[in-house]
Amino acid sequence: MENISQQIKSFIETLVSFGERQGVVETSVANWIENLLKENKINFEIQKFETFIPNFLKEKLIIDNEEIDCKATCFVSGEINNNYSLVSSLISTQPLIDHENINFNPLCDSISRGNHYFAPSIAIKKSDVTKVISGKDIKGIVEVEKIKHESKNILVGNLNNPKNILVCHYDSVGPGATDNASGTAMLLSLILNNQEVLLNNLFIIGGNEELSYDYPIYWGHGYRAFEEKYFDLLESVNNIFVVDCVGDGDVTFDNNISTVRLGFPLKNLEKYINKTSLVYGSFEKLMEVYQSDIDLVEVLSEEFLGQTYVDLLEKIK
Fold first, then answer.
1. Rg over CA atoms, the chain
2. Is the dihedral of CA 100, 56, 223, 248 positive or negative?
3. At residue 168, what are phi and psi to the nearest 5 degrees?
């Protein structure tokens, strides 16, 4: 098991080395996964689909003549010229999806881009919140272009009558060791070391989970593309395991629809919720690095990765 855990961690390191897995970088990662499967003589199918993603051209925030470190967290361009909407990114985007804002993650020491909006918005460090609150002259600007992107879901295993479906996504916001190089590496290790499970299981290594112009649920586009084409499989399988953000704590298999929707926002999730589990580690530790530049492999544990591997394998054998 030590060798397996080391393999998983090595895959995570490789995925993180690509940088933020969006656009052309996401495509490069998909090519790497395909080559890895080919090298190990594992058959797979590709589901290509078109989507739109944001390309951030400019992000700037000046408060009382001081430039504040920031990142764009929106799908549209515009200005933010007041501190009326200073919000925690731990709050759901949905009530604020159309409202300009400056946001921060109170649990993360870096800039966390955990929420995105269809109005001008900028993320800052929690250490700069007091500057926003006391600021008299606030000038924020973001420039974003909407670009077309061809993404792909990589489908491995039984695509006719699987007993179980295992799901992960390989794109990321930031380096994304936890979210979700961990889930991608986990599924790859399960596939490579247990090829017999491909007879009765389908593995979906999904693209374009993080950011799209789907309104108001902008995340999960790649999963919905799979749902649209393969809804019959989702209806017929015994179990669906969505592996997202593992290795930072004891593994949890969560069947609560509110939680599952955060990681698997299908159009018809209610139909499948009784058989669907979101598989994750420590939510608290995730929030400390969530979609930030400090979500690196060091925050993950080989012990927890190994535990997750064993628990998943037991459920699909």
1. 20
2. negative
3. -150, 175
Residue type, 177: A
CA–CA distance, 65 with 137 (Å, rounded to integer): 8
Given this model, what pLDDT does residue 308 score?
98
Q: What 3-state class would DSSP assign to 106?
A: coil
pLDDT at 93: 87
Please give the backbone phi and psi of residue 65, each rounded to the nearest 5 degrees, phi first.
70, 10
Give the residue ranges of DSSP H helices in the chain. 2-17, 23-39, 129-134, 182-193, 221-236, 257-263, 269-272, 283-289, 302-316
Cα separation of 220 and 166, whole Å?
A: 15
Beta bridge partners of 101: 121
Domains of the chain: 2-53+148-316 (3.40.630.10), 54-146 (3.50.30.30)
DSSP for residue 258? H
Structure confidence by residue, pLDDT tens digits, 52-90: 999 999 999 999 999 999 999 999 999 999 999 999 999
Q: Which residues pair with 169 in a beta bridge?
A: 206
d(CA 114, CA 92): 10
Cis peptide before 265 (omega within 30 of 0): no
| Spatial contact of 208 and 26, defined as CB atoms under 8 Å apart | yes
**Cα–Cα distance, 186 to 33 (Å, whole number):** 13
pLDDT of residue 1: 64
Q: For 248-279, what is each residue's pLDDT tens digit?
A: 999 999 999 999 999 999 999 999 999 999 99
The pLDDT, as a whole number, for residue 190 is 98
Those residues of the chain that have pLDDT short of 70 are 1
| Sign of the alpha-carbon dihedral angle for 188, 190, 193, 195 | negative
Token pair in block for residue 274 = 């009784």
Instruction: Label residue 195 left, alpha or beta by phi (over 0 means left) and psi (-120 to 50 means alpha).
Output: alpha
What pLDDT shows up at residue 89? 95
